[in-house]
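Translate structure to sequence.
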């Protein structure tokens, strides 16, 4: 296990929190059998602590490094929402326009762009239309083919009636970006998000960024192949095909808290309006979530945070920001998926991991608030 600290602390309370977070990161590999793990915690006025454990490849010849890139999964939804928000601000569309004003798709005329970005379209879920027994993630899926997989499920509920996760809507959202701009989704993400924020290790829409990857692996049930899935993302177009480093994904979410951000998008812009799920949601992971424009509202460690989890099968991730305490955390865990495995939730106890990372951030924020005014820096470079 490695740890990288941008600061040094005298408080045993804060140091104990860091030690326990490091132990949880290590436990994900040593006890729960994951391949690699990374946890990065950023506290304004203190600095950043990053913990890594395990390996970035199946051969276990390379340890996970702080600058590695990894699949961010559904955190990509936040980026897709930010691009469309910027396009709407530029007058290229209205978030309350019907989707069919821009795309020729056989969907309900009442479904708007906003419905897509709030998971409130009522469309079927394309991932439920995929045969997991025959799925080969190396196949290059076309976006319209993904959308077509959801059509046999019909319209699940009235557009705008509630929040219910719908990856299909995000594929359509990325298709809209391309139809309106005349550019690829990946190019638009680069132009509207990556370059303005000065990100060095991020790619979307099939763009694989520089940097060594934290690789995830999958055994195919119908063959004897073990697949490195680190570049197999066409099936997640617009909904989960992003690849970032920890520094970059933190920069994207933290930009929502900074008035001087080059994007000029605030947390309030994306979180002002929210929706809640039905008591028995169609997509089970919708339960317990409040959703804005590409953002979840949660309280993993007892305080309000905004962000998004993500999963691409062998890679589970998340980023969460607390605007009041000026804390941000990001996590990534990779493993080797095998056919018929039912231990996913046990192998990747995300609620425990998210709460541990945030609680550690709160311990550091307490140290900051007790030690100095908010405008006093405590950062001293002492990597260990």
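Result:
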């Amino acid at each position: 296990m490695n740890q990288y600290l941008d600061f040094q602390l005298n408080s045993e309370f804060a140091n104990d929190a860091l030690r326990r977070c490091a132990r949880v990161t290590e436990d994900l590999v040593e006890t729960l059998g994951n391949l690699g793990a990374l946890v990065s915690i950023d506290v304004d006025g203190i600095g950043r602590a990053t913990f890594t454990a395990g390996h970035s490849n199946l051969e276990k010849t390379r340890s996970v490094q702080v600058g590695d890139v990894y699949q961010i999964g559904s955190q990509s939804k936040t980026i897709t929402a930010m691009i469309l928000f910027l396009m709407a601000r530029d007058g290229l569309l209205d978030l309350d326009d019907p989707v069919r004003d821009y795309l020729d798709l056989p969907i309900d005329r009442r479904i708007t762009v906003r419905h897509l970005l709030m998971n409130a379209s009522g469309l079927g879920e394309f991932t439920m239309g995929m045969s997991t027994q025959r799925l080969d993630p190396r196949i290059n899926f076309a976006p319209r083919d993904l959308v077509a997989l959801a059509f046999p499920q019909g319209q699940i509920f009235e557009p705008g009636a509630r929040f219910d996760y719908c990856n299909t809507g995000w594929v359509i959202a990325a298709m809209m970006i391309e139809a309106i701009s005349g550019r690829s989704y990946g190019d638009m993400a680069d132009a509207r998000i990556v370059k303005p924020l000065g990100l060095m290790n991020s790619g979307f829409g099939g763009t694989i960024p520089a940097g060594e990857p934290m690789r995830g692996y999958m055994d195919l049930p119908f063959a004897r192949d073990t697949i490195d899935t680190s570049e197999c993302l066409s099936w997640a177009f617009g909904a989960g095909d992003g690849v970032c480093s920890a520094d970059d994904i933190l920069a994207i979410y933290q930009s929502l808290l900074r008035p001087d951000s080059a994007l000029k998008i605030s947390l309030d812009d994306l979180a002002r309006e929210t929706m809640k799920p039905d008591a028995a949601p169609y997509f089970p992971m919708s339960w317990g979530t409040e959703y804005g424009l590409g953002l979840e509202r949660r309280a993993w460690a007892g305080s309000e945070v905004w962000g998004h989890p993500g999963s691409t099968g062998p890679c589970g991730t998340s980023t969460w920001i607390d605007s009041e305490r000026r804390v941000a955390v990001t996590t990534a865990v990779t493993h080797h998926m095998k056919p018929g495995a039912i231990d996913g939730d046990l192998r990747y106890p995300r609620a425990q991991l998210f709460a541990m990372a945030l609680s550690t951030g709160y311990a550091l924020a307490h140290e900051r608030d007790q030690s100095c005014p908010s405008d006093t820096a405590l950062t001293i470079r002492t990597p260990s």
